[in-house]
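Running low. Got one?
___
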Amino acid sequence: MKVKTLWGCAFILFAFAPALAQQQPSDPIGDNFFPPELVMQHQQAIGLSEEQKEFFKSEFRKAQTRFTEMQWQLQDEAEKMAGLVKQESINEQQVLSQLDKVLGVEREIKRLQLSLVIQIKNKLTAEQRSRLMEIKNKAQSK
C-alpha cells in the first residue's frame, strides 16, 4: 500500500510541477515554457484567438486523456514491482527489469508534458509569449 501511495504522490507532484516550480529556484528549461493553466487563466489578457483557444482545448483534452492512461499504467507497473520486492528472496534481475518498465512510463509522461508545453509556446505569438512571461514573473515575485 505504501508503494501505491508513494507512486501516487510522485505522480501528483509531477503533474503539478508547474505550480510548484513557482516556489522553487530557477529552472533554466522550465522557465522558458508556459503551463496550460497559465494560458487558460490569462487567455483574455494575452488575446488568444478563437483558433488558438480551440487548438489548446483539443490538445489539452488529448494530453489529459493520455496522462490518465499513463497514470493507470504507472500504477500497474508499480504494483507489480511492489509484489516482487515483498518476496522473501528477491530476484534482482526481475526487480531491475520491472524498474525499467516503471521508469519507461515515467519517461513517457515527461515526454508528453514537454511536448504539450512546446506546442503551447509554438502556437503563441511573440507578443502573447512576452505578456505571459510578464504575468509569470509577477506571480513568481509575490
